[in-house]
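so the lab meeting is tmrw and i was supposed to have these ready like two days ago... anyway. pasting both below. for each one the top line is the aa sequence and the line under it is the structure tokens. i havent really looked at them closely yet so no promises
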Amino acid sequence: MQKLKANSDRTQILNSSLIGVEFEFYSNISLEETKDSLSKVLGKKIRIEEKAHSDFVPTVDEFKLEPDMSGGKGLVELVTGATPYRNARIIIIKVLNWIKENGYTNDRASIHLNLSFDSKFLQDTLMVSKMNVLKFILEFDEEQVYRLFPNRKDSTYAKSIKWIMPREESYFYDETHTSVNNFKFADTKYYGINFEKAQKNYLEFRYIGGKDYEKRQDDILYLAERFIMQIWKSCNNPRFSQENKLELKKILNKNQPLINMLKDYKNLNKHWPKINILVDLQESSQIIRLHWPRIKDKVLKLISDGSMEAGIINYDSDYSSLQVKDGVFKTAFLIEDVELISCKIMGNLENCILYDCELDGAQVKHCSLYQGSRVKESKVESCFTHGSVTLTNCYVAGRDTMFKGKMIGGIFREGFKSDDARFEDTEIVVSKKIKI
């Protein structure tokens, strides 16, 4: 069998690629009927999983259908196995047509493309896992996605990959010595491209989606082809071009306010006038400068990953913890390991403690919610929920969930609940009483 070469033509490259697809959508019929109908349309075996991100790995012959409450009650996800390019195109067309006839999508639904190459056509079977991720980021045409799907530009689940920072704030960029080791860049699943998947020799593209994406067949197929070709180009030409270096300089210039903030905390309020920093609730410059080296990276994450727009950040030196009061986070890609008081948040939270907060359209994992926090249209997983907290149209999951609050609508998928927990029009699937 003939192996692909770096200069192979477009048709050869595409025909050697594999596409796995994750379709998020709402169905107008039951889950069982959805499975049977899609199975008939696709000519594939489809199994129903009880919860999202199940352990079953789809194959080219057997797909899975599972609930995905990241988009609220009723959202389901069809996950295909890695399928040869030409066949995958047909699957995409058929599923999009099925959704148009039997379901719908909204702003919280998306379609993820998992792209790789068939190893039997490759000279280096681990090509994608070895790719120069920084080079890929620099030459990836992200604007092509936003031109076709402009509403995805500020999605909390698809942060721009055009975010690069020096590993050391004292670093001075010299384009003649560009090295991947000098920079920090996209490294979590919440970016438009999930580079964590490169370890498994493929990339997950999360950009595409939004209301009525099922009506965008030509755009989706066009982008799938472009993504494949861009992966191939980066993998087979790892050296930084002059255009790459100019793009890097452009991104670093854009992030200069963050770099300046790391050097001197005074620049925080200069560039973000609605954000103030305290240490032990004190405004003393001397005290803040003393502790700044310990907290500057955490503050950086609040702004870059949390998209914090306003609020007070306090560092509690006794407990080495960061607290935010009156924070505004409209598109939080990820907030983690922070104590949040009276904040308004839309986005992703992990390992946080919340008091009197308002959450809307959030994914909350391993958090504790207290003091009348209000959560709407969100996924709350493996969390402790105090009796004063109200969840509206939410999806509660996680075997280690501890729930004492009130739910209006939504689904209580699994977890422990107290005798005092209140439910109104909530679907309770599996629950256990908390033993006191």
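ok protien two:
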Amino acid sequence: MNSYLRQIIEYSAEVSEALKDGNKPIVALESTIISHGMPYPENYKCATDLENIVRSNGAVPATIAIINGKIKIGLSNDDLLYFAQDKHIAKVSTRDIAFIIAKKANGATTVAATSLLASLAGIKIFVTGGIGGVHRGYEETMDVSNDLVELGRIPICVISAGAKSILDIPRTLEYLETEGVLVMGYKTDDFPAFFQRKSGLKCHFAEDEKFIGEVLKTHFDVLNLQRGVLVGNPLKPEDEIEGEEIENMTVQALNEAKTQNISGRDVTPFILKRVAELTSKTSLAVNIKLVYNNADVGSKIAVAYHQAKQGLSSN
């Protein structure tokens, strides 16, 4: 880490201690889910609950954001509340990081930006809800989420409930294959589709956290591969939304976005909000449950990976 980066990156006491001692695994969490993914107060409760789930499994949470031009690795409770309530916080992808830092502004980090900043801090495990991907109608819009690009060049493991159902999932998986990203399913070989447990598309089967920990040790620490790993973690069976119902609502929301000339980074928040409205907020409740499930599984993976690395260093 260069001297200037050390000046603009700040760690919470909890994360700093974990990094210094190396005796606890760390799990990165994004801040966009707080500022742009859910309304208040659900977003604040979700943010604090996620951190507590991570702690309950023996890991340290590191919610990542930019505050007054400083990269924050780990947020205070006051920070979480501020990001949950303020409606003017910028949504920051990797392309925006330098701009927001130079402006000494505040920014909530996306999957892509969180992946990059977590990696700069030496964190290898990142939990989110769902990743971005290749958008429907790609042949017209050329719209591909930066999440996929960064997964192809950042050495981090992302645990998610697969790709959002509003996306073109077959093309998303093709893109990840082209980028050399390892895609595993947690206790499944059918890549999850966010609100549905199965997309009908195959991925590598990972039987448990211990096995994933061994894979990550080999990927990151033995082979030193400079690209990401994606773990698809299906939501629980009782939380699944019927596929045809969510598909019809997604198509309706996509058509409304097109009619209203909504494009680029504004599409996904609009679609998720509109689908939540059409389902009487059922999708919001499911979204929260699947993120909790990802935090539970992801923090267990972090512990398993930490233990696997300790075995490597003792040989």
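from a quick look at the 2nd one: The mean pLDDT is 93. The domain at 3-314 is CATH 3.40.1790.10 (Indigoidine synthase fold). will dig more after coffe
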